[in-house]
C-alpha cells in the first residue's frame, strides 16, 4: 500500500472554504475509489491555516486513479489559488 502525508498552508480568509472543499474531495475518494482506503483531514494545532492530509491507497495505480478522478480535478482547480505556497508531500510505503 501507498500512504501519503500532505501539508497544505492556506491563505488567510480561505481556510473555512478550503475545509469544506477538502471534505468533499475526501468523501468522494473513499466512496468512489475502490483503491482509496483512507483519507483523513487534520488541522494543525500549532500552525494557523495549515491542513494535513493522510491518505492510503492500494498501490500507485490507485493513487494515479485518484489524481485523475473528476472530484479531485474539480477540488484541485477550486482550491489551488487558496494555497499559501506549494503543498509539502511525503510518500511512504505501508509496512
From TrEMBL:
What is the name of the protein in this document? ABM domain-containing protein
Which terms in the GO cellular component ontology are assigned?
Answer: cytosol
This entry's Gene Ontology molecular function terms read: oxidoreductase activity
Q: Entry's Pfam families?
A: ABM
Under the heading InterPro entries, the entry gives: ABM_dom, AI-2_Isomerase_LsrG, Dimeric_a/b-barrel
Q: Report domain ABM positions.
A: 2-92
